[in-house]
Structure formats: C-alpha cells, structure tokens
Specification:
The complex is a heterodimer of chains A (about 400) and B (about 130). Chain A has about 400 residues and is α+β, with helices and mostly antiparallel strands. Chain A is about 55% helix and about 15% strand. Chain A is built from 14 helices and eleven strands. Chain A has helices spanning about 1-15, 15-55, 65-75, 85-90, 130-140, 195-200, 210, 230-240, 250-295, 295-305, 310-340, 340-350, 360-390, 390-400, and strands spanning about 60, 85, 95-110, 115-125, 145-150, 160-165, 165-175, 185-190, 215, 220-225, 245-250. In chain A, the strands form two sheets. A nine-stranded mixed sheet of chain A has the order 6-7-5-8-4-3-10-1-11, with helices on both faces. The two termini of chain A are about 30 Å apart. With about 130 residues, chain B is mostly helical. Chain B has one domain (about 1-20, about 30-130). Helix content of chain B is about 80%, strand content about 0%. Classes of the chains: A alpha+beta (about 400), B mainly alpha (about 130).
Chain lengths: ~400, ~130
Amino acid sequence: MKKNWIMLFRGMKRRRFGSIALVIAAAILSFAVFGGFILTISLKNGVESTDKRLGADMMIVPDGYKESAESVLLAGSRDYFYFDKVVLEEIEDVAGISAATPQFFLASLSEKCCTDKVGIVGFEPETDFIIKPWIEEVYNGELPDNEAVVGSDISLEDDGTIKLFGEHYKVAARLAKTATSIDTSVYFTLNTIPKLLADAKKNNLNFLDSQKDLNSISTVFVKLEGGQTALDVTKAIHENCSQNVGIVYPKEIVQSLSGNLSYIVLGMKIFVGVAAVISITVLFILYLVSSNGRKREMALLRAMGCTHGRLTGIMLEEACVLNLTGCAAGSVLAAAVVFPFGRYIGRSLHMPYLCPGIGIVMGIFFGSLVVVLLAGMAASAYPALRISRIEPYAALREEE
Amino acid sequence: MKNRITFFIIYILIGILLILTPTVIFPVCEGKMKMGCNYTAYAELGTGAFIIVLGIISVFFVSDKVRAGISISESAAGILAILFPTVLTGVCKSSEMRCHMATLPMLVIVGVILTLAALINVVYLLKKKGD
C-alpha cells in the first residue's frame, strides 16, 4: 500500500508540469464553486436580514427626508431629521393601522473611536416592533432606562460600557450581526434621550434646536392591518397629519434588493457554469494527453502482470489526489477573498452582505469538494479506461 | 540560481503589492485629521521598500546560508506588515470604513503570504545546505 503511494507521488513529481496544470484546473473549478456559493448565500442572507430588519409596512418621516431615511435604513448613514411628536398621535388615529411606534435618531462620535459615527436610536419599548425582536434574541426582559443595547460592530470600553458624550452607559446586550444599520447603532429607551442630550450639553456639544426639543421624534414605523393597502392608508395619513410628511415603503426597498440579487445570482451562475465547462474540458484534455504520454509505462506495468482494473485504479488514484489538492487550493483562495473582503464586495454591489455560519460554510466546502472530485473523476474516467485496455506488445512497439 | 531568481521575483512583487495596497489598490482614508490608517500606510510603504531592497540584495548572494538569513529578515518584515494594521498603528475602528473593510485584510493576507514564502525558503535553503 505504502509502495503504491510512493509510486503515485514519484510519478506526479516526474510529470511536474502536467500535475501542476491539473491542480490549477481543479483549483479554478473549486474557486468558482466554493466562492460563488458563499458569495450568493451571503448576499441572500443580507437581503433576508434586511427584510426582517425592515419589519414595518411604512416609515413616516418629515417631508423632504425620504432619501435620507432610506439611507439610514440600508447604508447605516447617520442623517437625522425630526418632526413633532403629535404626528404619532395623528397617525395612530388613522384607520387601517395595527401598530405604530416612534424612533428618535441622534448621531454621536463614540470616544472609543475617532472616526466612527455611532447611530444613537431612541425607541419606545411599549409599542416597538422593529428592534425588539432583535433584542429578544439576546436579552430577556425590558431594557431599563440609561442602559444600552449595541449593534455587533460597536466598539466598547475595556470595562464593557459604552462612552457617549463623556458618560459611561452600561451595555445590557450586544445584538447579533444583521448586515444592516443595526450593526453600527446603539439603542436606548426614549426616556434616556433627555439624559443623553443633557450629557452632550455638559460636554459643550451643540445640537440643532430641533434635536434638543424633547417633543421631537425622527420617524414613526407603521404596521398595517390585514387586508389594508398601503395606497389607501397613505392617503389617509396625508389627510390626517397636520404637517407634511414623507413616506418610505420598506417592502419596496426589499423588493428592489431582491431584484438586484436575482441579477447577481444569475451572473454568478453563468460565471460558475463557464468556469466549470472550461475547467472540466481542460481536465479532460490534460488527462488524455497525460495518458497518451504514459503508454510505455502502462504497457510495462501490464506486461509485469498488472490487471486492467489496477491500471484504471492507478490513473484514478492520481486524479483523485490531484483534484483534492486543487480543490483545497481553490477553496483556500476563495475563502481568502469572500470572507475578509465580503463586506467590501457587498458595499461595492450596494447590497447587504451577511456571511453564513461555520456549519453552512463547512457544508458548502464539503459539497464543493464532492462536486470538484466528481467532475475531475468524470474527466479522467475515459482516459483511464482507455489506457487500461492497452495491449502491451503493440504499445511498446508503437513507442519504439 | 533558480531559487535565487524565483524568490527575488516573489519578494519584489510582494514588496510592490505592500506599497500599492494602502496607496492605490485600497487607499486609506483621506482627511485633515491623521488617523491610524494613515500611519499604517506610511509604515507599510517603508516595510514594502525594505522587502524590495532585501529581495534585490538576496539575488547577489550565492551562499545558501546568507540567503536563508535574508529570508528570515523577509519573514520578520512579513510579520511587521501584519502587525502594523492590526496592533501597532491600526486602522479606523469603524467597520464601515474602507481601510477596515479592505486595506486591513489585504495587508494581512500579503503579510501572511510573505511570511510563509520566506519561511518555506529558509527551510529549503537550510535543508539543502544540510544535504
């Protein structure tokens, strides 16, 4: 057995360039399959997470801030806008609305980091249906005033607190990664916002007058009753509100993201398909050329008593080792691209990007391993069978 | 000779890549205020230049022992290339910044490749000497 492996590796070393070419072809196939799958699943996860995060049918914002609101929801930008709290009461009176909850946006420079604008969001725990489902995943019970729930990308102080406007706040929980603006936000109850503003004032940080107004809110998220259309309720909201408001439809944003995703997935399928066809063709040609160049070696083995089956086995064992090496190399290369640069890729595509868990990654790795191995074995099967049927005498004469 | 030329090319390419990463490929943040990523970029420029100089020097030495020594220095430079953005000077803390999302992983990957390649060459050269 050991002798077989030594013979196998010596043979591959002797045909160094051929072996390297086969490994490269398998690596390209593996790179395309593993990298393509991880990228596609991460983008799908991102869109699903955004869909969950935008758990409202409508987002009511001050007039003229629709684009800013979309940017806050998707890109995590730190725009802030305000209208009077009375809008909430007016919206609650509109027929066809099952739930409405306010949020207050405040941007800050976290002192832990000189470049990161942390989004401070005040929410109302009693009515909230936007952030609460995320908080409930990691924290049981009601969030107390003066305590924060932070997104996954927020830097904390060494003692586990968050320092905002010169004051330390206890962190009740850290949310799981969502690939949305939640990751870079800090959540407080609305009752804590006056204290935050007072802290800011104490530290000589100036805010707009509208930000200091404790009767202000930034947005109202609305959930519709079953059977109600957004169009009807939109009309009623505009009629009922005493001031002009803008309405963002989160579902439309998700639909637009899903549309983009389907194009990206199609592009990815074409890329993987083309890479697979080219790699398998190259593998087939290389195995065919390699088997033709080994006629003498195989004829001698046959003359020494090697069976047809054993000759086929030698060829397939070699193909298996080369394919596995190529697959490992291709997967490592793909992992070096899609994991560290995933967010950058997502940002470049204007899509949310959320990597799958380790279990799914391992599943995709082993799946791509099987696909590449099967493709490689299929490409080498015909040349292996062809060379195993060699007639020793005729082959040796031909070689002479 | 083959080893000398191969590693001369590898060191030169990695040195150039290290210089280009924070300046051209994934430029670090720009602004009036100097941030960690700006200092990292300066440090990587110096490290990249150092790697290129060592690569050029190594091609002139026939002795395997001397070239193994140069490769040890190259691997140390590779470790430095990793430490600058991760520990020593750092990059912007915000995971939304390009220097955090792209420059940092790229510098780490280039540093790891340099360190591994240089260490493999050290082992190869010392083993060859032993033979």
